[in-house]
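Suppose a colleague, Dr. K., hands you the sequence of a protein chain of 399 amino acids and asks what its three-dimensional shape might be. Before reaching for any lab equipment, you can write down a predicted structure in C-alpha cell form. Begin with the sequence itself:
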Amino acid sequence: MLITNKELHRIPASFGESKDIGIYVISPVIPGYPQANEIYQVTGPVERFAGQIASQGYIVACPSSFHEFEPPTAIPYDTEGTDRGNRYKVEKELPAYDEDAKLATDLLSSLPNCNGRIAATGMCLGGHLAFRAAFDPRVLAAVCFFATDIHSATLGKGMKDDSLERVKAGDLTGKGELIMIFGKQDTHVPRAGRDLIRKTLEDANVTFSLLEVQAQHAFIRDESSKGRWDAALTRSCFGFMMELFERTVSRDLGPRAGPAPEPAHAAINNPNVSEEAKERSRRILEEVGETTERTTDRGSSTRYEDTSESLSGNQIRGYKATLSNPRTSEDAKEKAREILEGEGEAVESTTAYTSGNTEDEHSNRVLGGYKAAVHNPNVSAEAKRHAHQVLQEHDADVA
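The predicted structure, expressed as C-alpha cells, is then:
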C-alpha cells in the first residue's frame, strides 16, 4: 500500500521552553495508531519502521521525544548523539513523557481518516514509552521492543519511574494487550530484569506475551546498529506485531469476554481460583481417571477422594475406560481400580501384574475395595449387597 510523506504537526505542550511538540505523521491513503521512537528521536530506521506499518493500512504518529531540549530533528547515531540522548532521557520529567503519548493519541483520534482505535510501539526508550502509553484506556495494544529501564525503574528526571508500580496497582489490568520482545543477549535488560517484568505482569493478570529471542539490543535497527541488526528476526517480530494490531486495532471484535478458563490441573493449584471452580476441576479430572491433590490451609497436599456422593454413570465409565487405555500410567489405572472397587463395581485385570505385585496381593486389594464399599455411606444399597456377596464368595470377613 502506498504511503504519504511524513507530515510534521506542532502541538502545544506543557513542558519545555518551546511549549510544543513536533509529531510526524505517516499515513496510507486510509485508519489508526501512535508512537514509534527511541532516544535518537525520529531517525531513518524509525521512519522506515513506521513506513512499513503505515503501508499495512495504519496512520503512524512519531513524537519527537526530546522537544523540550531541541528541534524535532534526528539525533545522530554517534558517541556524542548517544550521550546527548541518554542525558535528555534522565533530564526529562516523567509526566512530560506521558503527556507526549497523550498528545499523540489525541492527534490521531482527531484525524478524519482514523477509526479511533489506537495502538503503540517503540524500541529501546520508545519501548518503555509504548508500555506507559498502554495505561491510557484508548490504547488497545502495545508492542515493546527491548524496552529499557522498566525493570530498573530509572526513566525520567530523578531516575525513579513508577511503571511497574502502576502495573501492580492494576493500571494495566483489563486494558490493552501487550507484547514484550527482548533479546536474550541484551545487556540493557538482563535475565533478572526480564523475569521481573514477566512476573509483575502475570501477578497483575495483564494480557501479554513476552518473547525472548536470540539477539542483542537494537537488533531491529537497520542503521548504525554496531553489527546487531538481524533482518530475518526483525521480519518475524514484525509479524507478531501486525497480528496483534490486526486483531485489536484494524478490527472491532467487541468487548473481551474475559480471561479464558484455566486448564483443570492449573486451576486446582492456583490460589486465586475459587473453591467452587477447584471442585469442578477435580471432578473433571476424576472423570477421566486423573488423580488430583487438595492443598490444605497449611500448604501441604493430600490425595483428593470424592466421598460426597456416589459416582455417576459417566464417571464410572470414565474410570473403566482408564483401565483399558494403553496410554494411561499404572498409577492412574490402580487409582481407577480402587475407586471402582470402592463403588462395588467388578473390575477385571486387563494388564499383567507389575513387578513386585503377586496375584494374591492383587486379590487382597480387590477384596479391600469391596470391604470399603460396605462401609461407605455414599455407596448405594444395591452396590453394598453386591460387595457382601463377593466377600462371602471369597470367605472374607465383613466387620
